[in-house]
Amino acid sequence: MAMTLTTEDLGAAPDVNAATLDELLASDAFGKFAALSASDEEFIQAGDAWEPGAACAAFMQAHGSDPWVLEYRERGQQFRAEGQVTLQQVRRAFQSYLLGGSEWRTAFAWSEVAL
User: Fold this and answer.
1) Rounded distance, CA 97 to CA 4, Å?
2) How far apart are CA 63 and CA 105, in angstroms?
3) How many CA atoms lie within 13 A of 63 on its CB side?
């Protein structure tokens, strides 16, 4: 299934493959959000959750990454990974999602988001 990667600063990359996906997400040049979508109703997305303060500074020091929020949507429901994740975890989740794997789903505890 063809998927589109959409980012804040780079726009949409249709029919993205694993190599292009990894290249685009390898740096923070893509901006503060990225979404990998099969359709408007099925996607995985991540947003940079950086904000000034001690908690964010501690996360960055411990993980070497801004904190990110990871979500996915399917069958009319949206879910968010509990806690904050690193950009590396986002990259792995997006790769797994793109390749149809289950690692992205099992690597995190998910909670439904009220829309």
Assistant:
1) 12
2) 21
3) 17
Tally Cβ neighbours within 10 Å of residue 105.
Answer: 15
Q: In DSSP terms, which residues pair with 52 in a beta bridge?
A: none
What pTM does this model have?
Answer: 0.94
How large is the greatest C-alpha to C-alpha distance in the chain, in angstroms?
42
Q: How far apart are CA 82 and CA 32, in angstroms?
A: 19
Q: pLDDT (tens digit, 9 = 90+) per residue, 43-66?
A: 999 999 999 999 999 999 999 999
Separation in Å, CA 113 to CA 24, 40, 80, 97, 106:
27, 17, 6, 19, 18
Q: Which two tokens stand for residue 20?
A: 């292009």
- Given a contact cutoff of 8 angstroms between Cβ atoms, the answer to whether 110 and 79 are in contact is yes
The length of the chain in residues reads: 115
Q: Which amino acid is at 79?
A: F
